Amino acid sequence: MKNFILPRLREGSRASAALTGAGRALPIVMGYIPIGFAFGVLAQKAGLSTANTLLLSVMVYAGSAQLIAVGLIAAGTAAIPIILTTLVVNLRHMLFSAALSPYLKRWRKGEIAAFAFELTDESFALHAARFLEASETPPGKVEILALNLTAQLSWVLGTWLGIVAGQAIRDVKPYALDYALPAMFIALLVVQIKDRVQVAVTLLAGGLSVLFLLAGMSQWNVIAATLAAATVGVLVEPWIKKPSS
Fold this sequence. Notes:
The chain folds into two domains: about 180 residues, no CATH class; about 55 residues. The N terminus is likely disordered. About 75% of the residues lie in helices and about 0% in strands. The termini are far apart. It is mostly helical.
């Protein structure tokens, strides 16, 4: 039976593509389970019910937005400010979708909607790298959607584990759970940096983000810094890489 199944999976079937996508999602899974765990614990401490906490991870599925929402809920913030704040935080996804849209031209609207719903910072990083590596033979839809689905399932699993553990954890501060998400962002960023231009753009974006934050741009600092640094990088890269005469 084993010798019959494995050759068929190697022939490029949907099952093989799905397994490939799930396998590529493993780095995200290793990060999402502990971060989802942190969210589950913090949501539990904020007074959210088990059902509402799981629904946030199923229907919203946005790590930073969920963590911010939990903090605002714990502070007694009204619903409208929470919605507007998380909307602004997630505007960066417009940049993600713009970067990947050229690779999805042949996709159906329903497929694009499914892809966009599960697109996160981490999956974007993997998708962008994969599309660049396989420009002539882009990955199939099944592989891409399997990666996204695997990542979200791991996030939901981590959330559930956090809900269970949150009932036994009294004080979350000693565990630094609120630092879990930024830590994974930093790890993914380091993996993506490959040359001196990217190093310079990364440092510029980080510096501008801090400056904008200090200037009072509390919710827009990341987006503004990203756009400014990316623009500088696009303008400078051809000049730096121009061959000397």
